[in-house]
Amino acid sequence: MSISVKNLSKHYDKQKAVDAINFEAKPGRILGFLGPNGAGKSTTMRMLTGYLEPTAGEIEISGKNILSQAIDAKRHIGYLPENTPLYSDMYVKEFLSFIGDAYNLPNLSVRVEEVIKKVGLTPEQHKKIGMLSKGYRQRVGLAQAIIHNPDVLILDEPTSGLDPNQLVDIRALIKELGKDKTVVISTHIMQEVEAICDDIIIISKGKIVANNSLEGIKKAHQNSSLEDIFRKLTA
Length: 235
Ligand code: ADP
Description:
Blueprint: E1 3-12, E2 15-25, E3 30-34, H1 41-48, E4 56-61, E5 64-65, H2 70-75, E6 77-80, H3 92-102, H4 108-118, H5 134-146, E7 152-156, H6 164-177, E8 182-187, H7 190-196, E9 199-204, E10 207-213, H8 214-220, H9 226-234
Parallel strand pairs: 3-8, 3-9, 6-7, 7-8
Antiparallel strand pairs: 1-2, 1-4, 4-5, 9-10
The structure holds adenosine-5'-diphosphate.
Adenosine-5'-diphosphate is lined by residues 12, 15, 17, 35, 37-43.
């Protein structure tokens, strides 16, 4: 199992932002992590990536504990935060070399070429990040997330703010990248889940209210639309 979460909680004072959740995410599958605003999605993503310490519970990434084996665990994770922080004054190649260098990657220039090709950045590779469209900037974000070839990819609202064409392209790219990785996407967009996810978790008020394959959840709800199922479970 690439991601294993047991009894995970995060409390802010009295508020239980995440309340004793359990789930697993499997290789070769894309898991959609859905919930209304304030449900606990970002808090969970930030704990999965080791940026936020849980109040209680355990997280293992590829068998490594995110707290006690943090360096090993983080080596297996690629992370695209919401509003990807990128250096707009840096050139695409310069930025990716900078990130790759932080991971101490061997043959860095070859690896930078590889990821540029993989995420479809070739035509824009000589530009400054600040000159790129939002869609291409998101490709740079994905390139930095995969440069160290992690087996787990965590993407926080990866298509927010993209225009319809960029959205289709970035979803296709995520689907392609997901073939040999474990991908978790946090989103509140139902079409996104329908378009790319294999499995779905719905979180509401810090608790998991559904955990199933996309097909399974529809079957369990008499083939209702995902929107109706979501509304019913998070009301
Ligand atoms: P989502 O990503 O699903 O919108 P969040 O994980 O951001 O939800 O937030 C879950 C809950 O925890 C919300 O009620 C939010 O207000 C609260 N919360 C998040 N971060 C903090 C914080 N640093 N301090 C206090 N409360 C927080």
